[in-house]
């Protein structure tokens, strides 16, 4: 996605990054020796107070510019209109880092990315059931490079940092700008409630940080497949019923309860049939 203000030398994310160290340094308290004179203490406090002024100015600029860019971007659709034949399709929005992959920055190498166990099969299967969107706060080039490695279908939409909404140092996903019916949108992330402006559409899963025995994506697949079969009128009602719970464990527990109810019903029907049969013989 192109920057909304082409005449500016740096994007909002770049300004944020370039000023980060300065803001940290200027807000770090100056150590004062216990035996310092009152004048030295006063001078240190005065310096700290003075240095907070440019920091506040930078933060004000970031917030104001973020609000302006949000307004401009808000007039744009993040996703193209759905084909009329696909209006009933659910949209599955997936976070990237610690959800589908694990990314780590190393100065000498750059961004190193590792695939979460089962991610290829997971995305291939979900792409046959859902409209899949990867929505990340990472830079556009990084997102495109990573998704290229894990998208075997070539059908996954990619949204990166310019498509997020910047507030108080956090790049939030804004599902309201997806150009989709919110009742048909599900956002899944290892940090869903912390990274999205629509908690009613969010489900948290376990974060992945290179654990070799991780099976979260494989275990999550039956839950998502069942949604495609049952096709609830509003996914937000499903989300509400799982809020605060481990999605995978809760889903399997509910499946067991349904299975037990079916078995009990079968047994009751069998007893009724046997009872009718024995009535033939007085």
Task: Write a compact overview of the structure shown.
By secondary structure, the protein is an alpha/beta fold. It contains nine helices and nine strands.
Mean pLDDT, as a whole number? Answer: 86
Order of helices and strands: HHHEEEHEHEEEEHEHHH
Tally the beta strands.
Answer: 9
Strand content: 5-15%
Q: Any idea what the CATH architecture of the largest domain is?
A: 3-Layer(aba) Sandwich
Q: Supply the number of helical segments.
A: 9
Determine the CATH topology of the largest domain. Rossmann fold
Cα separation of the termini: 82 Å
User: CATH homologous superfamily name of the largest domain?
Assistant: HAD superfamily/HAD-like
Give the helix level as a range of percent.
40-55%
The CATH class assignment of the largest domain is: Alpha Beta
Strand numbers in spatial order across the main sheet:
5-4-1-8-9
Major sheet: size, sense and barrel closure? Answer: 5 strands, parallel
Tell me the domain tally: 3
| Low-confidence residue ranges | 1-7
Would you mind describing this structure in some detail?
The chain has 282 residues and is α/β, with parallel strands linked by helices. The protein contains nine helices and nine strands. The strands form three sheets. Strands 5-4-1-8-9 form a five-stranded parallel sheet. Strand 2 and strand 3 form a beta hairpin. Mean pLDDT is 86; it is low at 1-7.
């Amino acid at each position: 996605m192109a920057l909304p203000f082409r005449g500016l030398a740096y994007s909002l994310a770049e300004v944020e990054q370039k000023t980060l160290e300065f803001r940290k340094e200027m807000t770090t308290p100056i150590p004062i020796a216990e035996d310092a004179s009152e004048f030295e203490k006063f001078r240190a406090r005065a310096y700290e107070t003075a240095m907070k002024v440019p920091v506040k100015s930078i933060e004000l600029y970031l917030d104001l510019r973020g609000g302006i860019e949000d307004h401009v971007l808000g007039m744009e659709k993040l996703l193209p209109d759905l084909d009329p034949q696909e209006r009933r399709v659910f949209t599955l929005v997936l976070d990237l880092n610690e959800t589908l992959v694990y990314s780590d920055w190393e100065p000498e190498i750059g961004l190193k990315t590792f695939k979460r166990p089962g991610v290829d099969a997971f995305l291939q299967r979900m792409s046959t059931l859902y409209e899949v969107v990867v929505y990340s706060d990472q830079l556009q080039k990084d997102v495109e490079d990573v998704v290229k490695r894990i998208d075997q279908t070539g059908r996954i939409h990619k949204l990166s940092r310019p498509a997020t909404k910047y507030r108080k140092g956090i790049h939030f996903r804004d599902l309201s700008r997806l150009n989709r019916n919110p009742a048909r949108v599900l956002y899944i992330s290892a940090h869903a409630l912390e990274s999205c402006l629509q908690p009613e559409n969010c489900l948290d899963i376990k974060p992945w940080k290179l654990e070799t025995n991780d099976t979260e994506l494989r275990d999550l697949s039956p839950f998502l497949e069942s949604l495609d079969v049952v096709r609830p009128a509003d996914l937000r009602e499903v989300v509400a019923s799982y809020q605060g719970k481990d999605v995978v464990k809760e889903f399997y527990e509910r499946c067991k309860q349904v299975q037990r109810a079916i078995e009990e019903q079968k047994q009751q029907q069998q007893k009724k049939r046997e009872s009718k049969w024995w009535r033939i013989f007085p």
